[in-house]
Structure formats: structure tokens, C-alpha cells
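Predict the 3D structure for this chain.
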Amino acid sequence: MTLQLETPERVAREVPRQRRGLLYNWGPQAIIDMMMSKKMIAGRGGPMVQFTFVPMIRIASSDPEAVDRAYLDIRSRREKVRFFDSPR
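Done. Predicted structure below.
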């Protein structure tokens, strides 16, 4: 059994193929992926930032108002999800 190491030249040549099409963007697997990521990441992990990390940073910071302003600035720049956007 021989072990082939990936050289940087080989890795650089392999470009992931762009997947397009109606079935890929709107098919059943895209819907399932969207629902699973919403339930697992946004539902459970999302509140952790605003209820755990931001208060801890606010306590450790010398200027808690600056932490609040920075967090609100980050939240204002989030991507808006529109009704007809693809689940992907």
C-alpha cells in the first residue's frame, strides 16, 4: 500500500465545481439543509452570542457602551433573507 501525499501543485489545480441549477438550489435536499441549519445553528447556537458572549465582554470591557454599539453595528450589517431567496 502506497501513501500519496498531496502536493501544493496538485491541490492548487483542483478547483471545486460550481453547482448550479434549479434542483440544486431549490430541491428537496436544499430545503432539508436549510431547515436543519436553521434548527441546529440559528435556533440553538444563535442566542449564545447575545446572551452569553456579549455580557461577558461587556463585564470585562472598560467601556460597556462601546461593546453595545459594536454589537449593534455588526447586527445591522447582517444579510437580509428575502422570501424568494434560494435555500442554498
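The radius of gyration is 21 Å.
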